[in-house]
Amino acid sequence: MLIARLADALGRKTVLLASFVLFLGASMACAASQNMNQLIGFRAMQGAGGAGLYSMTMIVYPEICPPGVVPMISSLLGIVVAVAGVSGPIVGGLFTTYATWRWAFWLKYVALVPSCYFPESRPFSLALRCFPLCSKRAT
């Protein structure tokens, strides 16, 4: 409810970007944490940013896609959440066993840097190519 209220008051793009910055900044802080108290605090901040990202996704996608595509997008988002819930602990366990737990927090930056240099490989660009109906409505 809080994120939706903020999105109404401040604008959807502003709240989405603020959630993204909070999530990435807290993730970086988690990777650099020096003790358990810091890790817990930064992880809570990362959770708040992630909740904002998820909430804003649920608010924005029905607005930018035609009504006929919304059930398919909802299904895809459900699949992503399910796969992440199952694979996250497995990947985290592999990092903890074979590397260091900090890599679980640095991994998103490894994926983010190439997407900054190669715009056509960004997830949003890929989504627009896969779902051309959404891009027609968004413009």
How would the blueprint of this fold be written?
Blueprint: H1 2-10, H2 12-32, H3 36-64, H4 70-98, H5 103-117, H6 123-130, H7 132-138
Q: What Rg, in angstroms, do the CA atoms define?
A: 17 Å
Shape summary? globular
Total separate domains = 1
Unreliable stretches, pLDDT < 50, 5 or more residues? Answer: none
On the 0 to 100 scale, the average pLDDT is 82
Q: How many angstroms does the end-to-end distance come to?
A: 28 Å
- H/E topology pattern: HHHHHHH
Provide structural commentary.
This protein has helices at residues 2-10, 12-32, 36-64, 70-98, 103-117, 123-130, 132-138. It has 139 residues and is mostly helical. The radius of gyration is 17 Å and the shape is globular. The protein has one domain (2-138).
What would a concise description of this structure say?
The protein is an all-alpha fold and 139 residues long. Helices cover 85% and strands 0% of the residues. The mean pLDDT is 82.
Main features:
single chain; about 140 residues; mainly alpha; 7 helices
